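Ticket #4471: structure output looks truncated?

Reporter: J.K.
Steps to reproduce: submitted the chain below (238 residues) through the standard prediction queue, then opened the result file.
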Amino acid sequence: MRITFIGTSHGVPEPERRCSCTMIETAGRYYFIDMGTQAIEDLIHRGISINAVKGIFITHPHGDHTNGLISFVDLANWYFKTSEPQVYLPDESLVTGMKAWISGGKDLREGIGLHVYEAGVIYDDGFAKVTAIATQHCHHSHAFLFEAEGKKILFTGDLGHPTKDFPQVAFEEELDLIIVESAHFSSDATEAVLANAKVKRVLHNHISPRWAEDLARMASREHHYQYGKAFDGMEVVM
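Returned output as attached by the reporter:
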């Protein structure tokens, strides 16, 4: 399994960082956690077939996590007509809005799936399994537990605060990787919570520059897990 960080910025793009978008490849199949930037351009530049994209999972309906989704679905709808991406959104109004934007409110072509999810297992194609976990960042915000090839990766998405809604699975199951946001609160708060997590590796993502000093301090300390920060173009092989 290969995880590629396409965008790791906070709420706005920066010169060297785009908005939130992470791509996962397993068994030649591709999945996305959030699509806040033009991921379809990355696929084309990398020579990856749009047909290989099987699932797109949106943590919550904020633009820095969704702005690339309209263009992806639009091109899949009228141009890449053999692709069959399944898109998972946390609210019915998002499905309605997408249909209105792309096709004037009509259904998209057969093969494209727009699904509304709630907390629980929302996807399992035999290659990847995704479980949604409700958080308190905003209405309909979720974290995702992504499982493939015997590995478990937790994407926290945006949280209300680590002491309030850090996903309990981090303390109950052995995780291979936690990808945790660092836009809305100090990494010191996250570090205290992660001290009790059952995890091998932690990467900060969705990073706001205002926490740079906090992240540097965290990096200078020892932890029971391997620690680092994600950056655009970074690849992690599990």
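Triage note (M.O.): checked the attachment and the full token line is present. The mean pLDDT is 96.
Status: closed, working as intended.
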